[in-house]
Amino acid sequence: MGKKTIKINLVDSYDTIEDKFLFHFLGEHYNFLVSEEPDFLFYSCVGEEFKKYKNCVKIFYTGENAVPNFNECDYAIGFDHIVFEDRYLRFPYGFEAVSSELNNMCDITKTLAVRKFCNFVYSNSSYGEGAKLRQEFCKKLMKYKAVDCPGKVLNNMENAINPRRDGNWSSGKIDFLKNYKFTIAFENTSSIGYTTEKLCQPLQARSVPIYWGNPEAARDFNPRAFINCHEYESLDKVIEKVIELDRDDEKYLEMLMQPPLNPGFEEKFSKETVANFLVNIVEKGNKPYFKNTNVWLKKPTLGKRIVQNIFSVKNKENNKVVKILGIELKFKRRIG
């Protein structure tokens, strides 16, 4: 019996259907018909085209630090530690390329301690607190030793790595990182749950990440396998740790030998986990959930302000607003 055909579309995304890993997983179960009248609409956070589509199930997926709005989407895949029945899956961007093989440390040898010092690969120089902080850190670290910067930011190497949107960028970047003992791995922003390929890729390359971003990255990754900037009181203290490891091969190799993935990582973030989440959505059929879009909420009234105050939850630590408008969400993390 052949695979069922489903009508889908993808909007407001940097990726295409051919590129996005979600469709690779879902394609093992269904054939796709790309349609302007889809039953299932996938969208991300780089536009608002999704709003014009009616009478379809909307599935939000983000590679950016954005919280899903369940008054706009029916289902979501993101970074936050949210529990919302079968409508949400935490599956951070970059985790799809990580497998349990990463914990097989048989490729770690003493020669890895005599590689080039450190690299810094970035194209974004201004968006987010981390963009500025990582440049500050890199410049401080350069006072100790040269740091190779093949990206657009602080560039001091020409044509050393493929452009960001090149189809071979990810594998090419990992191959580049393999030449270095350390990789500066700062996210654009810092938020609980928001870990991306910036931590995964150095680990895949066996290059010790100097990581800043998700303060709770150790929930998914072995804290002894990377330098976590959030554990230090200043960037200067982080640099002292980098220098200590750089000057002591035994201590460096001890960190490099640590299995990077915490127990249970592969079960939580496997291809099957994503596929099962998506198949469950499809098998329910084109049945969107109710979304609270009452016109009166858009009017500048006291009632609107009251509703906004009741149904917007601000995470003070991360300066994020989660708009839930009538939908009760249960958070595993503390919200103040």
Could you explain how this protein is built, in words?
By secondary structure, the protein is α/β, with parallel strands linked by helices. The chain has 3 domains: 4-91 and 269-291, Rossmann fold, CATH 3.40.50; 100-264, Glycosyl transferase family 10, C-terminal domain (Rossmann fold, 3-Layer(aba) Sandwich), CATH 3.40.50.11660; 295-328, no CATH class. It has helices at residues 21-26, 129-141, 169-177, 197-204, 235-247, 249-256, 265-268, 271-284, 302-311; strands spanning 4-11, 30-34, 40-43, 57-61, 75-78, 82-83, 88-90, 116-119, 180-186, 208-212, 227-228, 312-315, 320-323, 330-331. Strands 2-1-3-4-5-7 form a 6-stranded parallel sheet, with helices on one face. The protein has a 4-stranded parallel sheet with strand order 8-9-10-11, sandwiched between helices. A two-stranded antiparallel ribbon has the order 6-14. A hairpin with a 4-residue loop joins strand 12 and strand 13. Helix 5 packs across helix 6. The relative contact order is 0.14.
